[in-house]
Structures are given as C-alpha cells and as structure tokens.
Amino acid sequence: MGFVTFTLDGVWRDSCIPQRASAERRNDGSILVTVHHEYPPGTFCLSVLRPYTVEADLIVGDGDYAVWVALDSTLIDDAPPAEFGRLGIRCLPRCIPDFNDDGGIDGGDVEAFFHSWEAGQQPADVNYDGGVDGADVQAFFEAWETGGC
User: Fold this and answer.
1) 110: part of which helix (H) or strand (E)?
2) Cβ contact 7:40 at 8 Å
3) Which of 47, 79, 138, 147 has a 20 to 30 A CA-CA distance from 131?
4) What whole-number distance in Å separates Cα of residue 20 and Cα of residue 39?
5) What is the DSSP letter of 121?
C-alpha cells in the first residue's frame, strides 16, 4: 500500500477557482479525482484567468489504474467523469532482505520471496526492471546476504 497525492493545477476562466479535490477508488478499480468548485448560489465571479491548484490524497496498492477526473460545481454545470490517463503505482519494499516484513532477516524471507517470485508477482521484482526473472533472484540474495538494510 502507498500514499498518493494527486495535484491538479491550471488556469480557471474566472475568479471563482476550485478550492479542493477528493480522490476515491471506484467499484471497477479505477480512481476518480473530483474537483470541487463550491460557492454559494448567486456568487459573482469576475471574468479573469486565474491559476489554481487542488490536491487529493488516496491510499492504494501496487497496480495500474485508470484515472478519471470530474467536476462538482455549485456555479456551473458539473462535468461527468472523463478518463484522464493511466497511473502505475509501485510501492517499494522498506527492506528487500526482510521480504516478509517481520523485522528479521532469515529463512522466512527466502521462502516469502520465492513464493512471490514463482507466482511472478510484482513484489518479487526486487531489481525494479519491470519483470520477474532470474536477475531478481540474484538481486534478492545479494541484498539478503548483507543481512541488513
């Protein structure tokens, strides 16, 4: 699991700029970032271009996510979700030799690494080259033999 901050910035068409954003996982596994443009009805906004920045935080696991963006506004028509792009999340292990994160470096880590490696799981890509192969075994054992992080 990892902590992601989505930062959206740009230039808004009037002085009533968005004030905040929120992020959530959708049922289909994608991420929806909603820009909130909240002002009381009848607010007068000057017609000027004005920069804005909004951020939203979300905790997600390793994976490849479609990211959608929507606008929730009290002043203008809402913008329905539109696909913005894709985001690959790769949470780095705290300590490669302690592969099972139990606080010690021992045979349990070797076993946990090989289970992940045999299944071709992303955490076994300990050399971070994008694939799970023999080079990861070598990288794991080089780190494991040092006995520390």
Assistant:
1) helix 107-118
2) no
3) 147
4) 12
5) -
